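Q: Is it fine to ask for two folds in a single conversation?
A: Yes, each is treated on its own. Send the first.
Q: Here.
A: Result:
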Amino acid sequence: MNQTASKIVSQSKTITILATVARIILYVAAGITVVSLVGSYLNITGPVLVLFGKPVYMIDLSEGMTMEAWRVQLVEALVQIGLAQALLYLTDSLFKRIGSSTTPFTAEIVKKMKSLGVLLGLVIAIDNGYLGVVVGFVIYAFAMIFEYGGELQKQVDETL
């Protein structure tokens, strides 16, 4: 394995480790959000624990927020966590495949890149429509370049 290939494998492993850590953190955030949502229906309004000497409330209805608005925010947070989990899963599987492959120009990697581009574009489009379309398009275009690279590599392999 040449130096560039070993560097790509090493960086792919680092990215998969970081993606796994981020997914674990998101699982914890999802758990806290679900507990808060359940607590809102059980009317648990007092402090649930003390952290660094300050009480932590399951429900914080500051600034005139209603209970329904609080619940909507929690459900929105769960949807965002779910989308982030899907993005991290795709990223993790993409880089695991890149790290274990002899070439990044395979149909499987291209398919994962296209999926990642579409999903990331949709996630960004939720907050900023134009930016989401552009980001999704750019990643999808890179996937098409990788697809073309795969075709070129196949032609080279057939001529050898």
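Q: Second one now.
A: Result:
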Amino acid sequence: MYHNQLLPLATGIKVTSISKGSIRTTLLLNPPLNEQQKISEILSTQDKVIELKEKLLKEKEKQKKYLMQNFVTGRKRLKGFNGEWKKVKLGDIFDYEQPTQYLVKETNYSDNF
């Protein structure tokens, strides 16, 4: 309603500049009360679903954090895996590459890409 009906009536940048007369004569779809109530029930149910999904997501994030803290540190082990974890130097498993060749030298970008 705001975008389709009220905003075009605005006489200035702020919506507060809509005249009372324009608001009074603007037509508004108004379903019967029982339909309004049903719409309200549906939207309330969806709000509850969203709230529950957000709670579930937070719980899953907590679970992931717990698993990361325990599996990555070796405090907990997966079934079927045993033996000690080895301590290795990063230099033994990673190669360092000087990043100079990847640094951006030009900031004048083309709009063609």
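Q: Anything structural to flag on that second result?
A: Two points. Residues 2-77 form one domain. The radius of gyration is 30 Å.
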